Amino acid sequence: MSTETSTDFKSYLTPFNIITGLIIIAGLIVTVIRFTGGLAAVTNLDDNYPWGIWISFDLLCGVALAAGGYTTAAACYVFGFKKYQSAVRPAVLTAFLGYVLVVLALHYDVGRPWRLPYPIFVQQGTTSLLFEVGLCVFLYLTVLFLEFLPALFEWKGWKKLREVLVKMTLVLVIFGVVLSTLHQSSLGALYTIAPSKLHPLWYSAYLPVFFFVSSIAAGLSMVIFEGTLSHKYLHRMMDSEYNRNHNDVILGFAKGCSWVLFGYFALKMIGLTYDNNWHYLATGFGVWFLVELLGFVALPAFLFAVGARDNNFPLIKWTAILTVLGIVLNRFNVSLIAFNYHLPSEDRYFPHIMEIIISVFIVTVGIVAFRFISTRMPVFFEHPDYKGQH
Amino acid sequence: MKRRSFLGLMGAAGAGLAVPAPARAGVKDFRGFLETPGVLFDGTRCIGCRKCELACNQVNNLPEPEVPFDNLEILDSRRRTDASTFTVVNKFETPNGPVYRKNQCNHCLEPACASSCFVAAFRKNTDSAVDYDDSVCVGCRYCMIACPFEIPTYEYHKVLTPRVMKCTLCGPQMRAGELRLPGCVDICPVEAMIYGPRNELINLANRRFKQFPGRYVEQIYGEHEMGGTSWMYISGTPFRQVGLREDLGTKSAPELTAGALAAVPVVVAVWPVLLGGIYAINKRKEKIAAQEQKQAVAAAVAKSKEEAEEKLATSLSKAEEAANRRVDNEVKKAVKEALAKKEEELKAADASKPDEEEGK
Fold first, then answer.
1. pLDDT tens, A112-166?
2. Lowest CB count within 10 Å: A45, A333, B6, B187, which one?
3. Does residue B197 sit in the same domain as residue B218?
4. Is B127 found in the same domain as B218?
């Protein structure tokens, strides 16, 4: 922790800092334009496309990819996979930051961000699925914060406060799973209100189930993917306990993810059959649907199984990336590509460069925050004062 | 008295009497407020003069459009509602010549916008207007995603006070007594629109079907679409040819999301029980495993202790025996040695005796 002795300017000019610095400057400039010029100044949103990539990527993908928090916590504390203990803190931290960033992104997207607390505190639209999403995200953010606080308290050395929170772990984890189930599925259910706008291959009464189940696969894959990245760039922060369990976690999660993806594949087939949408498969959208289903669901399910059987870690890591891309593809398909499929191509939406800058900016803020926290607080290592106390 | 205003007055009267409270989304088997007012648009009468667009612009104090309302060339391009245009007339080419259709908010009986709004900013009013309250609107624009008729629009260019904009059925102006009829209905030179109680309008449409056989597609668009709308259409050409989707179905928006919402309490109630149960099973497994381990350890310890004791006992007795034997041997040896010594002494004594005698 006392590595900051040489604080001269040059030591800060690492490639990482230069790139993130540039992105953050660009993001801040666009932020100013957004809040002085309105949505029209920075987005290509229009009356046909009220939701663009800030919803598709920052909200839908952001929430799905932050699912590692509840899946890892549930695996460790509820399902009794104790050896995953060391993966819980990084996953919970990622999830917490993920949700903070989702909320941050919403401030850009909604017309009057200062009113974001209104649905909870001023007037409740309880018939809206978005109300459910909002309430659950608000509560879950609180839960994740409480789940992560022990790390902060250990860093600060506040033992008594830490004790209180650690005792609440199980309750928090179960509450977190309930809330995650609800809002992950509700994000899919948002689109059940618009059967006329979403292509039949993606529209289904099962949309909430699809979104929930695929979020589990997304969460598990993200833990594998982030674990790999952290291993590479934050290795110095990891203790032997973390490193000893790292391979166990990856193998276990690969196995679990394979099962979940097979289940998800089966569910998608049931959805296809239930609505009798087979004839659409022969159309252009049908081919695209098959690319998603076979290339980004069935294939990773199979590859995870092979990788777990052969202890093939590189294969597992690449498959995790494939799965994550598949979830991103799915969310984009539902919210943009297959949405408004009936509109002529000239009316369709493509994101403005400034929309993309904001999305990249928000991801970058997340990475910087993760690095800041995990290089200070006991995330990848057990605090010496609390060894083996979980 | 003109026919449309007669029906209009009936509609206004009906609005006051029929329903005591504003509608709430998600009511079971809701058949609509029969007596409440609506509008019937007759596509066979519309001449595409854009007077309704002009009136709408004026009564709602909307900004002046780039293309003036007397320019009819604009009808050649397909238009939709936007933040400063609550209604548009579109021209559709058909084998029997051009057909016009006016587009605006249809004021659904169970509005998708109201159902989807997470601050309940939309309300279906007793005078059939779907009202919007911009004082609570967060600007999430989910209403625009939800609306099957693609009506709500947004003021994207405004920085601090962007609003969702859409036709109000002139509800505010009529409630204030400024207008007797919606602006567009009032101005129409060919009575293409009639304002009146919804059930009366349905009867009127059916009468026209009978009166002019072969003139209409004998169906009222909006009678059942998306659970029914207050604004309805009859047409001489199939509805899809005048930009009205025929694949919307008759389910209202609240029905579409009811299943997902119904799952919420189930998850809240069942998940903790299920997860708690799984936790308890795992805990119990661990406990039993620990107990079994403890027992096994205890048994092993007892066994090895017993064995050790036995071993100790045997080796102790063996050692004792050996010690006894050694003592015996030592004693014997000592006795033997002592005897041998005695004998030697005796021998020595015997040998020295004669010398002494000789020396004397």
1. 999 999 999 999 999 999 999 999 999 999 999 998 888 888 888 888 888 888 8
2. B6
3. yes
4. yes
Of A126, A128, A185, the CB nearest to B142: A128
Same domain, B225 and B140: yes
Is A341 at the interface with chain B, CB within 8 A?
A: no
Identify from A36, A83, A130 which residue to disrupt to test chain B contact, counting B C-beta atoms within 10 A and taking the largest count. Answer: A130
Q: What is the pLDDT of residue B274?
A: 94
Beta strands B37-42; B231-234: pairing state: parallel
Is residue B344 over pLDDT 90? Answer: no
For the segment A189-209, the average pLDDT, to the nearest whole number, is 95
Residue B18 has pLDDT above 50, yes or no: no
Provide the percentage of residues in chain B whose pLDDT is more than 70: 88
| Residue range A143-152, pLDDT digits in tens | 999 988 888 8
Scanning A134-193 for CB atoms below 8 A from B yields 134, 170, 174-175, 177-178, 181-182, 185-186, 189-193
| Burial class of residue B190 in the structure, from the number of CB atoms within 10 Å of its CB (0-12 exposed, 13-18 middle, 19+ buried) | exposed
The DSSP secondary-structure symbol of B283 reads: H
What is the Cα A88 distance to its own chain's centre?
A: 15
Calculated CA dihedral for residues B171, B176, B181, B184, nearest 10 degrees: -60
> For A319-361, how does the pLDDT look when each residue is reduced to its tens digit (9 = 90+)?
999 999 999 999 999 999 999 999 998 889 999 999 999 999 9
A-contacting residues in B 253-292 (Cβ below 8 Å): 253-254, 256-257, 259-261, 263-264, 267-268, 271-272, 275-276, 278-279, 282-283, 285-286
Q: How many domains is chain B partitioned into structurally?
A: 2
Q: Which of B202, B225, B251 is the last residue of a domain?
A: B251
Residue B351 Cα distances to A137, A349, B340, B355, angstroms: 123, 141, 17, 8
Residues B297, B341 share a domain: yes
- Determine which of B161, B257, B266, B285 to mutate to test the interface with A (most A C-beta atoms within 10 Å): B257
Q: Which CATH number fits domain A16-380: 3.40.630.30, 1.20.1630.10, 3.40.190.10, 3.40.50.620?
A: 1.20.1630.10
* Same domain? B153 vs B297: no
Q: Are A239 and A381 in contact (CB under 8 A)?
A: yes
Between chain A and chain B, the number of residue pairs with CB atoms below 8 A apart is 183
Identity of residue A100: V
CB contact under 8 A, B118 and A208: no
The A residues from 19 to 38 touching B (CB cutoff 8 Å) are 35-38
CA distance B151 to B298: 78
